[in-house]
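Section 3.1: Structural characterization of target chains.
Under the original work plan, the team committed to producing a structural model for every single-chain target entering the pipeline before any wet-lab resources were allocated. The record below documents one such target. The sequence was received from the expression subgroup and is listed exactly as submitted; it comprises 91 residues.
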Amino acid sequence: MSHTQTELQWESGALDKYTKMLKRIPIFHRDIARQVVCKKAELNAKERGASRIEEDDLAKAFVTEVPKAFYSLMIRVMDEVKLDYKKYGHL
């Protein structure tokens, strides 16, 4: 499964931030992050009844799927790509 192969379309800003985040995640964690975050982001969008994956879905997916041991890395990477997880009430 590629990082964008989903049933739903991605909102362009969310896809851009997701792609940038994946590039900043250490290579040995990248594949698992790609799989679990993509699936969860799509599920989040579907639960909202949305037809596309948006930034809120992405932020929520990272916050819920990334192990707590990696939270500091995740927050740093979110800040670097300007994915405002606080705006959506996550963490």
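The chain is about 60% helix and 5% strand.
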